[in-house]
Amino acid sequence: MENMAMLLSLIGAVGCGFTSIWFLVVAFRKSVLWGVFCLFLPIVGFFFLIVHWPEAKRPFMWSILAWVVLMIGVALGGGRTYFTAY
User: Model's pTM, two decimal places?
Assistant: First the structure.
């Protein structure tokens, strides 16, 4: 069970990173200013999501799935994280 928890946590963490980059790419494709503001001011990413829903919904929905997988992995692991040095 511990291996499954670690695998799900890893898949979820990689998915979260990938979808964050994907969302930034979508923002930069819209305009450089959107991309820069989304990169440095997280609240702007929320506004970008609302204003440009058709373009931003795919990375957003995949990020929700990645978070769910990550949380399932953490829950199966008893709340322990596998990415810290002991």
Answer: 0.82
Handedness of CA 18, 22, 27, 29 (dihedral sign): positive
CA 48 to each of CA 14, 54, 66, 80: distance values in angstroms, whole numbers, following the listed order:
23, 11, 20, 34
Distance CA 67, CA 61 (A): 10
Both structure tokens of 14 = 């990689």
Neighbours of 33 (CB within 10 A): 11
Q: Which helix (H) or strand (E) holds 75?
A: helix 53-76
Query: Which amino acid, 72?
Result: I
Residues 42-51 have pLDDT tens digits of 899 999 999 9
